[in-house]
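Many introductory courses stop at the sequence. We go one step further.
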Amino acid sequence: MSNALRPWLDRCPLVAILRGLKPEEAIAMGEAIVGNGIPVLEVPLNSPQPLESIRLLAGHFGENALVGAGTVIDPADVARIAAVGGRLIVTPHADPAVTRAAKEHGLLAVPGFFTPTEAFSLLAAGADGLKLFPAEAASPGVLKAMLAVLPKGTPILPVGGIGATNMEPWKAAGAAGFGIASALFKPGDAPADVAERAKALRAACG
């Protein structure tokens, strides 16, 4: 397993999913989140002008944050994301081609999966970690069973329905981190409100 993802998860095991983020609010939202201890920012590609938001965030934070794209479904998009400074590729689905494209461009890859078959195929393609999605349809017990057969040290991040009140059972089952979406940010939120949520989420994850 690559260990390039681990230092970020060690700093904070949360990935801020900024679905719907607009470029004009990117820096303010980034400051609200990174400034409260969550340095991994994911801008889904189904957001308005996602590449511009990624460019702005990557340029503003530099090495102080890991900025990348989510909802990446086309391997051709990986080069565009890398060109604007993105360093993380997250998918909603188990597509080894997107994972391979990420690794060919020197980016971190955290693809989505739901079954052991998908997990092993993505790890074979070079995934740095795995996104268990949708977590609402799984359970901490499912995660624990998967970790028993996956390579030791495989980082799995449940995504979907995770918030400050329900992390603990997943952590006990072995989750390496979590992707946090609407519990942190929704379009139209004020930066001050997002900052307060970031602070509470950071405290909840220990």
